[in-house]
Design brief:
By secondary structure, the protein is of the alpha+beta class. It has one domain. The chain contains four helices and seven strands; from the N terminus they run βαββαβαβββα. Strands 1, 2, 3, 4, 5, 6 and 7 form a seven-stranded antiparallel sheet that branches. A hairpin with a 2-residue loop joins β5 and β6. The longest helix has 15 residues. The chain starts with a strand and ends in an 11-residue tail after the last helix. 29% of the residues are buried.
Length: 178
């Protein structure tokens, strides 16, 4: 049996995120949970576990699966799976994969909660020999691609700003938090 250290209840965190007014920029520290506050985005550590002697991850798979199912049911369309996939080639999807994220199948999934995007990330931290599980919470505009082409200068400027902010995002974290 692997020593799993549970840090935050993921379902309680998701329910807390539902209560943040859409007109307000979240103040992550005010939620009263361990958080890596990056300003526009935040990383909420959920659990860590040491890698096996062979370097294999898997101790957090059951917790990740349970949370993913919860997100699919409450935020992703339930039986018709309306969750969205982050591109592995650019943006936040590429950043978390480069940082050691273990994709679900071949995809990193995200769900929308109001004006936020929630990304469940199980990852390997080979330097610390840990498997980690965290909820990354970011502006939905960083990952949402409109089906309608952007046609105004304001919309194009906003899209460029969001892409710039996303490319500057830091997806790394370690436990305990400093």
């Amino acid at each position: 049996m692997t020593d799993v250290e549970n840090i935050t209840d993921g379902i309680a965190l998701l329910r807390t995120l539902e209560t943040i007014p859409t007109w307000r920029n979240p103040r992550w520290g005010d939620l009263g949970l361990p958080v890596v506050d990056r300003g526009d985005h935040a990383i909420f550590p959920l659990a860590i576990a040491p890698l096996s002697d062979s370097g294999e991850a898997g101790a957090l798979l059951e917790t990740e699966t349970m949370l993913r199912r919860h997100c699919i049911h409450f935020y992703g369309g339930d039986s018709f799976h309306a969750e969205s996939v982050l591109s592995p080639d650019d943006g936040y999807g590429r950043k978390v994969l480069e940082a050691g994220a273990i994709p679900h199948g071949s995809a990193v999934l995200w769900w929308g909660i109001q004006n936020l995007a929630v990304v469940l990330v199980r990852a390997l931290d080979e330097r610390q020999r840990l498997e980690t599980l965290a909820l990354h919470v970011l502006p939905k505009d960083w990952v949402w691609e409109s089906a309608v082409p952007l046609s105004t200068k304001r919309a194009l400027s906003h899209a460029r700003s969001m892409a710039r902010d996303c490319s500057a995002a830091d997806v790394h974290w370690s436990w305990p938090l400093n």
